Amino acid sequence: MNISLTTELEQFIQGQVASGKYTSNEEVILAGIRLLEERERIYKGRFEELQREIAIGVEQLDRGERLDGREVIEQLRQKNQALRRTQGQ
Known about the structure:
It comes from Nostoc edaphicum CCNP1411. This protein has helices at residues 7-18, 25-62, 69-88. The chain is an all-alpha fold. It has one domain (7-88).
């Protein structure tokens, strides 16, 4: 596989090797790919978690378990104001 890099990326990679953090250009590139792989795994896990939370919410709505949006906003405002008062002291 051949990869073309911008001058800036080449300089970044060379700088990482020159700093002693990595022993070769390949090691820098592999570290970057591993980070991307880990980020994708985290995003996938969070997406699946959100899907489960949405499904729970839909089930609750189907059972008639609802909160009045205006009441929730008002409660949040009151909590926020109380928090600001305690932090201001």
